[in-house]
Amino acid sequence: MLTSTTDRRIRYCLGFAAALMAMAGFPIEAQESAGEPQVSADSFNKRFAAAELVAEVQVNSVHRDIDHALSEPGMVAVLGYVYSAVSQRVWKGRAGELIAFRLGLTDCDKKLVQGSRYLIFASADSMGRLQLNSCDAAVPGDKAGPLLALLREGEGRG
Q: Helix, strand, or coil here: 57?
């Protein structure tokens, strides 16, 4: 049984987390119902416009992105992960059958799963390499239905 003090603390933490997410650019209006995220067309259009590559991919290998300058004997400084994926469908941008992209731990603390499908929204970093800028930039295939529907709807109009 939660006390009113515990209840207030939980609400405060949730409010604080929502404020941090808003400052980081996460779409707060995305709400889940029946396990599928509800995505506003405006939020989706902004994400699509900002991306240089929008593609449905299947991750076939995962490699650590290591900072050799910070690594020491017995300790490896991992900056994030570099993924190799096979493109299933490209919605925006140019890509071959194989795609390599980065996802830094400062942008997302989750590791994508080898063999799984994702809808990715990638942009180029300062060296021209594809990167994902947040966890939201890699939507797992089982949760990508609403976004894929918006992509197909836009394709029908275009």
A: strand
Locate 114 and state its tokens. Answer: 């080898």
* Whole-structure pTM value: 0.72
Residue 152 banded pLDDT, cuts 50, 70, 90? confident
At 77, list the tokens: 């400084």
Structure token digits, residue 25: 């650019």
Tokens of 149: 């529907």
- Around Cβ 91, how many Cβ atoms within 10 Å? 19
Identify which of 37, 152, 157 has the alpha carbon closest to the alpha carbon of residue 91. Answer: 152
The C-alpha atoms of residue 119 and residue 23 are separated, in whole angstroms, by 24
Q: Residue 55 is encoded by which pair of tokens?
A: 């593609």
Buried b (16+ CB within 10 A) or exposed e, 2-30: eeeeeeeeeeeeeeeeeeeeeeeeebeee
CA angle 50, 111, 26 (to 5 degrees): 35
Cβ neighbors of 139 (< 8 A, separation 6 or more) are 118, 119, 120, 147
Distance CA 22, CA 29 (A): 10
Task: Please report which confidence band the pLDDT of residue 16 belongs to, taking 50, 70 and 90 as the band edges.
Answer: very low
pLDDT bracket for residue 9 (50, 70, 90): low
